[in-house]
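4.2 Preliminary Data

To establish feasibility before requesting continued support, the project team ran the inverse folding procedure on a target of 448 residues. The structure was first converted into the token representation described in Section 3, and no sequence information of any kind was made available to the design step. The complete token record follows.
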């Protein structure tokens, strides 16, 4: 047990409550503070364990006396309580950083602007299929800290957002994966792309010569930044445009994964459960991680062929009257929607819209011209979408509920078409979150 010192957890979601549980187990005096309401599920868990908490406020005298703060990744640095903690030089860390102190398990850590959830889930699926004792945590799965407190995994696959990485200091990823870097969340980085890039590259901090760094050799921002860092880890690039050494590449629709001193894996992209060039990238990254761990080719090939994607990410919902409905509600930025459209055939009815984070829709224009027959807006303010695409599609319709959007899209679609919910925007104008938006979309489809 650690000597008793006071730790305050800010935020009471999955990561916050998990951190509180681990801190309590390690003998710390622990207090949880949430500026909003705490859900009944987490309140019950805190009460059953006798962990002190408050909700709908931050009481400064109960927070500013902490030895360390474990902060929810959703709380911005400009929040008043964070500014006061910084003034008092009280260390602020993430749940991942805290939990990492108490496990010797190998970590496979995945970040990127797009594709990280899919890649994390696929990597976990491959390791699980191979029979490894593996946990899933970070942005997906259960709290890393709670699993460290209560489980005994040999490996963890962790999805890490830039917000998590910002408050990680000593944590070391044994295998770090950087999928891509495209503009997102720039409001949290003073609208400076270089700050966001630096945040993503924190995934390699503390790596040593026995670590591994997997990255996309086709990604402009990643390539531009590589020379700015003294990378000690063994590097494993992947590309769909050219051959690479000690990584993965695509040639004649075949993926080759060739890691030094390990058996080469080859498979055709037709064998992949996940289609589209973005998913070739995701599969390459997962495959490299699997081969670093010396998993058998048959296991990797089988796992990449039978994987089922996560909810709200290009999730097939139903086929009605010959029209396919796909839920990609997790696409909250333009890049994610680009990837979704890129994987579609032609004649798409695209449902777009929500809270626009200053989106630049220009990168979608060529794909919209090629594949989209009409756009259904789902949001309170759709002017930017109309302005961006009025010359590219004949029909743009405004709706303000998932039910209306689905009904309008159904009438606009023809047999053989796809209705794709891929909003390119946050969901907070009409929905609780992207899950709520996706769930309402699926419910509306099933009512047709």
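Position-by-position output of the design step:
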């Amino acid at each position: 047990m650690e000597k008793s010192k006071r730790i305050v957890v800010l935020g009471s979601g999955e990561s916050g409550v998990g951190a509180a549980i681990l801190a309590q187990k390690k003998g710390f005096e622990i207090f949880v503070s949430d500026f909003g309401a705490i859900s009944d599920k987490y309140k019950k868990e805190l009460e059953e364990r006798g962990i002190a908490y408050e909700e709908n406020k931050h009481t400064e005298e109960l927070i500013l006396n902490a030895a360390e703060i474990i902060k929810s990744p959703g709380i911005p640095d400009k929040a008043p309580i964070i500014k006061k903690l910084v003034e008092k030089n009280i260390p602020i860390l993430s749940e991942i950083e805290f939990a990492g102190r108490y496990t010797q398990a190998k970590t496979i850590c995945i970040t990127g602007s797009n594709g990280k959830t899919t890649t994390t889930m696929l990597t976990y699926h491959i390791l699980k299929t191979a029979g490894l004792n593996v946990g899933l945590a970070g942005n997906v799965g259960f709290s890393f800290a709670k699993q460290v407190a209560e489980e005994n995994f040999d490996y963890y696959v962790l999805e890490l957002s830039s917000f998590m990485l910002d408050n990680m200091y000593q944590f070391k990823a044994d295998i770090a994966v950087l999928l891509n870097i495209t503009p997102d969340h720039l409001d949290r980085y003073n609208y400076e792309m270089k700050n966001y890039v630096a945040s993503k590259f924190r995934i390699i901090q503390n790596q040593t010569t026995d670590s591994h760094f997997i990255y996309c050799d086709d990604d402009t921002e990643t390539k531009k930044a590589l020379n700015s860092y003294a990378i000690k880890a063994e590097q494993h690039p992947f590309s769909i445009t050219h051959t690479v050494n000690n990584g993965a590449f695509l040639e004649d629709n075949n993926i080759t994964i060739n890691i030094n001193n390990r058996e080469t894996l080859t498979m055709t992209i037709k064998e992949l459960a996940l289609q589209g060039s973005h998913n070739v990238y995701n599969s390459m990254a997962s495959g490299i991680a699997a081969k670093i761990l010396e998993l058998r080719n048959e296991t990797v090939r089988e796992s990449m062929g039978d994987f089922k994607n996560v909810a709200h990410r290009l999730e097939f919902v139903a086929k009605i009257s010959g029209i396919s409905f796909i839920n990609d509600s997790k696409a909250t930025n333009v890049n994610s929607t680009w990837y979704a459209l890129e994987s579609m055939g032609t004649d798409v009815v695209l449902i777009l819209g929500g809270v626009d984070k200053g989106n630049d829709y220009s990168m979608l224009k060529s794909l919209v011209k090629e594949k989209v027959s009409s756009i259904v807006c789902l949001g309170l303010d759709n002017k930017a979408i109309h302005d961006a695409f009025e010359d590219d599609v004949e029909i743009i319709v405004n709706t303000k509920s998932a039910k209306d959007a689905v009904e309008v899209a159904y009438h606009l679609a023809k047999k053989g078409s796809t209705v794709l919910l891929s909003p390119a925007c946050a969901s907070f104008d009409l929905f609780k979150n992207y899950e709520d938006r996706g769930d309402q979309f699926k419910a509306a489809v099933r009512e047709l």
